[in-house]
Amino acid sequence: MSAYDALMAHVRETQALAQVAGRLGWDQQTMMPPGAAHQRGEEMAAMEGVLHARRVDPRVGEWLAAIDPADLDAVGQAQVREVRRAFDRATRVPADLAAELARKTTAAHMAWAAARAEDDFAAFRPHLEEVVALRVREAEALADGGGDHYDALLQDYEPGMTAAEIAAMFDGMRPDLVELRKTALDAAPAPELTGSFDEDLQLAVSTRLAQTFGYDLQTGRIDKALHPFSSGSGQDVRITTRTALRDPFNCFYSTIHEVGHATYEQNIDDAFLLTPLGNGVSMGVHESQSRIYENQLGRSRAFTGWLYEVMRDTFGDFGVADADAFYRTVNAVRRGYIRTEADELQYNLHIMLRFDLERAMLAGDLPVAELETAWNDRFAADFGYAVDRASNGVLQDVHWSEGLIGYFPTYSLGNVYAGCLFEAMRADLPDLDASLAQGEVGPALTWLREALQVHGGLRTPRDSIAHACKGAAPSSAPLMAYLRDKFTALAA
User: Total structural domains in the chain?
Assistant: First the structure.
């Protein structure tokens, strides 16, 4: 067996075990009884210990040293690139720290869910303090005495990106977003939904939407969770959604969003299964798929016309007169607190808030004890009104309980990437709106699959977007042009 063959055999087995660990995480948020939290923490820590040992196995370094990339094709070179990057990072993190992170984040997740239900940040604070302290230790190990600690963690989610680049991008976007938001809020309010929407009917429409957007239920399933998410890769990719009796959009667009993540994983070339190339290349690129499904496609005038008829057939009269009014309702810009329920304009402002706060926490400039106050002050400054309770503020997101510091900016990076992809898609598919108006998303899905999804991790994140966009480098300009055109017209 060649060094490359031995390396890939080892990596495939490690990837398989990682999928098992991921299934434990899915179960924790969907099916696990609440009293199992302590035991699940031990199980997760044990699995992380096994995975860490495999990732830092000295043989990996020996195999990498024995491989001449010139002997490999483009796929083999990409596999080695990704294995080397993961190996270099894993060998910097002590095994006991990796296991402790798994243990503490499991406990913190359960504490977050309970604290969120009670609007009690103080109950969650000690858990978050432990998680942040552990992530600081991990960042120190990854930076190895030099470099920005936030950048060190960011590489887990968006390889090749830096906090400075993100900050510069956000600073460039913020003024236009604030101006567009003011224009939208000053316009006549959009019609609102009336009545309640049966939960079972919501889930039936949700399943129909998932299949419309290409989700394969033979290798996936839909469950409910407090915070919608997608989990898995290859032949087992699961999503969750949630329902609200008076807000079916919460269910429908959460589903479409998570299906964007899930179909990316389902559509990756089968030859990459259980290898480093068999997953989405980064969270920013991943988010580009969920956001383009949800927004540029799912909230378009063409598609919402079709969805309006589906809702009328399912729920009867719900207070919106026609498809044009429904389009305005779906895209309404209203005051609100929740990131996942925010419109396309305000969503990025939510991300910018979180990005700045978590950078400050990691740097030691913002103690966790002061996080709730800092959140509330920043929210009032950015949005113009006060947070009313912790579950609408600092406790609304699951991410920090799971140690995902550095993850949040990838949401807005995903919006930027989605803007680039949609511009390129529009150029290639002049009849896109006619298809969407019939509920036919197929042409758009085929374009995304062939241009980006099938390639998995073959290219770096930036190169993945540039390849799909005919060589054009990622830029926030297409997104801002799309938002300006859309929301200026809606406000007219």
Answer: 2
- Beta-sheet strand order (sheet of 236-241): 222-224, 236-241, 230-233
Q: Does 265 show up as a binding residue in the annotation?
A: no
pLDDT tens, residue by residue, 170-199: 999 999 999 999 999 999 999 999 999 999
Picking from 116, 147, 178, the residue at the C-terminal end of a domain is 147
Residues annotated as part of the active site: 258
Residue 154: inside a domain, yes or no?
no
| Domain presence at residue 334 | yes
> Which amino acid appears at position 404 of this protein?
L
Beta bridge partners of 222: 239
pTM of full prediction above 0.85: yes
User: Which pLDDT does position 42 carry in this prediction?
Assistant: 93
Residue 280 sits in the same domain as residue 362: yes
Q: What tokens were used for 352? A: 């910018």
Structural domain contains residue 411? yes
- pLDDT tens digits, 286-323: 999 999 999 999 999 999 999 999 999 999 999 999 99
User: Residue 16 contacts by C-beta under 8 Å, 6 or more apart in sequence?
Assistant: 274
Q: Tell me, yes or no, whether 269 lies in a domain.
A: yes
Give the residues across from 240 on adjacent strands.
223
Q: Are residues 452 and 324 in the same domain?
A: yes
Kindly report the CA angle at 302 between 299 and 307, in degrees rounded to 5? 65
Strand ranges (DSSP E) for 230-277?
230-233, 236-241
Structure tokens at 149: 């600690």
Distances (CA, A) of 458 to 234, 275, 338, 464: 15, 11, 35, 8
Range of the domain at 9: 3-147
Q: Are residues 19 and 139 in the same domain?
A: yes
Position 260 pLDDT exceeds 90:
yes
Quickly list DSSP for 38-53: HHHHHHHHHHHHHHHH
What's the CA dihedral at 125, 126, 128, 129 to 10 degrees?
110
Q: Are 136 and 149 in contact (CB under 8 A)?
A: yes
Same domain, 188 and 90: no
Is 261 within any annotated ligand binding site?
yes
287 has binding-site annotation: yes
Q: For residue 127, what are the contacts with CB-CB under 8 A and spacing of at least 6? A: 104, 107, 108, 111, 112, 401
**Do 171 and 311 have their domain in common?**
yes
Asked whether residue 262 falls in the same domain as residue 332, the answer is yes
**Is there a single domain that holds both residue 100 and residue 245?**
no
